[in-house]
């Protein structure tokens, strides 16, 4: 149990029998009455958001979630396969509910996976990643009228809009939250 006044951004709480991550926290001390915190929470199992207001002296239960480093190995029709980097144990994470992760998982890269009650509930993808362009059409003279961008396909199958100067074989940085091009990466 944790006092509501001690809750920080990034804390995992057990609300409605499910783990929620504190995304935003606001402390309010009104002129009359007792102080309270306004919380914006994100469900780690469904992704839904929840707004809660709790008095600072009330107790809230912390969720017992654990992060562990795991190397992504491969995917099959139903699961993503990982290997724990400490004990080399291999385990599978069901694709169901995490289909959007497929465009950012790269073989032999290490990620943090969040577990709750022995089940993986989240694969933490970095905010920005670098991927290689595998399909890119050549820009035609006069294409600048349409905003000087084109659609390319990256090594994981993700399609994104990039500037027309990007060519096949180049590496680009992608924002994983918005699926948008950030910059070309020179290696």
Question: In short, what is this structure?
Answer:
By secondary structure, the protein is mainly β. The chain has strands spanning 2-3, 12-15, 18-28, 36-43, 49-55, 59-60, 65-75, 79-84, 90-94, 110-116, 119-124, 128-135, 149-154, 159-163, 171-175, 180-185.
Strand and helix layout:
Layout: E1 2-3, E2 12-15, E3 18-28, E4 36-43, E5 49-55, E6 59-60, E7 65-75, E8 79-84, E9 90-94, E10 110-116, E11 119-124, E12 128-135, E13 149-154, E14 159-163, E15 171-175, E16 180-185
Antiparallel strand pairs: 1-6, 2-3, 3-4, 4-5, 7-8, 7-10, 8-9, 10-11, 12-13, 12-15, 13-14, 15-16
Task: Report the structural category.
Answer: mainly beta
Count the beta strands.
Answer: 16
- Strand content of the residues, in percent? over 45%
| Whole-number count of domains | 3
**CATH T-level fold name of the largest domain:** SH3 type barrels
Largest sheet: 5 strands, antiparallel
Strand order of the largest sheet: 9-8-7-10-11
The CATH architecture classification of the largest domain is Roll
Please tally the helical runs, counting DSSP H or I stretches of 4 or more residues.
0
Query: What percent of the residues sit in helical stretches (DSSP H or I)?
Result: under 10%
In quaternary terms, these chains amount to single chain
Which regions have little confidence, pLDDT < 50, spanning 5+ residues? none
Order of helices and strands: EEEEEEEEEEEEEEEE
What is the first-to-last residue Cα distance?
48 Å
CATH class categorisation of the largest domain: Mainly Beta
- Computed over alpha carbons, the radius of gyration is 21 Å
Shape: globular
Average per-residue pLDDT, rounded, comes to 85
């Amino acid at each position: 149990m944790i006092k509501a006044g001690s809750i920080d951004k990034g804390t995992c709480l057990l609300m409605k029998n499910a783990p929620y991550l504190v995304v935003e926290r606001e402390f309010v001390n009104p002129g009359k009455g007792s102080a309270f915190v306004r919380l914006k929470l994100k469900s780690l199992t469904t992704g839904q958001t929840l707004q809660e207001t709790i008095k600072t002296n009330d107790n809230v239960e912390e969720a017992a979630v654990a992060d562990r480093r795991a190397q992504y190995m491969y995917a099959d029709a139903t699961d993503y396969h990982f290997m724990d980097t400490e004990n080399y144990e291999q385990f599978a994470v069901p694709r169901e509910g995490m289909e959007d992760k497929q465009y950012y998982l790269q073989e032999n890269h290490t990620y943090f996976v969040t577990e709750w009650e022995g089940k993986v509930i989240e694969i933490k993808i970095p905010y920005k990643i670098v991927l290689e362009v595998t399909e890119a059409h050549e820009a035609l003279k006069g294409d600048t009228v349409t905003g000087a961008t084109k659609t390319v396909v990256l090594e994981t199958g993700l399609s994104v809009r990039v500037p027309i100067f990007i060519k096949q074989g180049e590496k680009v940085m992608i924002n994983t939250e918005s699926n948008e091009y950030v910059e070309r990466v020179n290696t």
